[in-house]
Specification:
This protein has about 140 residues and is of the alpha+beta class. It is built from 5 helices and 6 strands; from the N terminus they run αβαββαβααββ.
Length: about 140
């Protein structure tokens, strides 16, 4: 136990101060001025990982699912990726039962291979007319530019 504590102190003591770290280099993709108004980007690439902000869908299921995943497809395509590159999906919805009823629609986008996923029911989204928001994490293949 004493060895681990000493090792931790040594390792932490050798970390650089936050103000000496180089700035994060990231490729940012912006779709509209709405993002600047709210304060986010549609997608941010860091290294071989792409983080895609939540895309929304309104109205009724299944139309809301098609709207959200259709927007995600466009963002993935901008980077030369498909849903096959997605490793993590997080879905927020105000209607979890309706989403569960239409979960087979995701096959239109993912095929037979699904990513790790978390689905959460919430009270409301940023705009009350939206009923689903989906965010993704995708990984670029080795050697991708």
């Amino acid at each position: 136990m004493k060895f681990l504590l000493c090792l931790s102190v040594l390792l932490i003591g050798n970390l650089p101060a936050a103000d000496t770290l180089p700035p994060l280099k990231a490729d940012r993709y912006q779709v509209s001025n709405f993002e600047d108004d709210v304060g986010y980007r549609t997608a941010v690439r860091v290294g071989n990982t792409l983080y895609i902000s939540g895309e929304t869908g309104g109205g009724r299921m299944p139309d809301a699912i098609h709207e959200a995943y259709g927007s995600l497809r466009k963002t993935l395509a901008h980077y030369g990726l498909t849903f096959q590159h997605v490793v993590k999906e997080t879905v927020y919805t105000t209607q979890i039962e309706a989403l569960k009823e239409h979960r087979a629609l995701r096959r239109e986008f993912y095929g037979k291979e699904f990513p790790a996923a978390t689905w959460v029911q919430i009270d409301r989204l940023f705009h009350p007319e939206y009923i689903i928001e989906v965010e993704l994490i995708a990984v670029f293949p080795e050697g991708a530019k």
